[in-house]
Amino acid sequence: MVKLGQINTLAVIRISPLGCMLHGADLGEIPLVPGPQAASDTTRGLKAGEQVDVFVYRDTDLEIMATTAEPLVLADRVACLEVVALTDKGAYLHWGLRFDLFMPRSEQLGDMRVGRRCVVFAMLDVNSQRMIATARLHEHLSEYNQGRFTREQKVKVMVAQKTELGFRVVIDGSHLGMLYHNEIFSRLGIGDQLNAYVKGIRDDDKIDLVLQQTGRKKVGGVEEAILEHLNANGGESPITDKSPPEAIYKQFGVSKKVYKQALGALYKARRIQISKQLVTLNKE
Q1: Tens-place pLDDT, residues 12-45
Q2: Quick check: 218 pLDDT over 70?
Q3: What are 84-139's pLDDT values in tens digits?
């Protein structure tokens, strides 16, 4: 079965001066059209009966087409795409094909501008079965954990939207969660992809995240990083428990809370001395 909006492996039926036709099962014969950079190379090297991986879609005339070019997003997936044009009916997004991906005005959120990047969910339009995009992520991704993630679990996130509380992110392409401003110590941008950790599951089953690993395992890693930093700098460091969170994050990539916990553990183990100005390595 051929799936629209997805990569399919189809057989070449025939090649003629007019182009290449693929076997589309119940959809009939499907023309293979050029990718954005290869207008003259679409059929080069292909032979009848050969299998070829293609993206299958409906064009502006609702005709079913195939291309060897791979788009930046498939149906039922999330991606960060650039706005390339705006009309009264909606926005057009660059997605790597010869035509742009349409996002209807009704599917937009916030201020849309040409050149701005936005995180969208790609899908098939119910009526036309053409690929479209929507910024209404909450209608297609789960806002609730429902037993999917556990506390301190490492996940992949994509920054989707800035809010008053923090940044809304897409977790592993399937769920939505929140990173709070007061727990972020580096600049984030829409579309950034990075590792995060589940801080906790709220009473309403929504997911809170942090960018630094929590717990004793993280503290232990920071202890080693502190010792390495001291050894590389003559046994002294001006980054103390009184230093600004930004300075601590820039050097060690952790929050001030985690850094202070690591300093405390090293002090108790008599590995370091701490003053207002310096952290000093004890001589063994």
Answers
A1: 998 877 779 999 998 899 999 876 654 445 556 7
A2: no
A3: 999 999 999 999 998 999 999 999 998 899 999 999 999 999 999 999 999 999 99
Three-state secondary structure call for residue 247 = helix
Range(s) of the domain holding residue 55: 7-67
Kindly give the pairing relationship between strand 236-237 and strand 272-274.
unpaired
pLDDT single digits (tens) 151-195: 989 999 999 999 999 999 999 999 999 999 988 877 899 999 999
Do you know the residue count of the chain?
Answer: 284
User: Last residue of some domain: 195, 210, 225?
Assistant: 210
**54 in Cβ contact with 66 (< 8 Å):** yes
Eight-class DSSP state of 264: H
106 three-state secondary structure: helix
E strands, the chain, in order? 7-16, 19-23, 29-33, 51-58, 64-67, 78-86, 90-94, 101-104, 117-124, 131-134, 154-162, 166-171, 175-180, 193-201, 207-210, 236-237, 272-274, 279-281
d(CA 96, CA 122): 14
Domain count, the chain: 4
- Residue 225: give its domain's CATH number: 1.10.10.10
Kindly provide the b/e burial profile for residues 205-234, where b requires at least 16 CB atoms within 10 angstroms of the residue's own CB. ebbbbbbbbbeeebbebbbebbeebbeeee
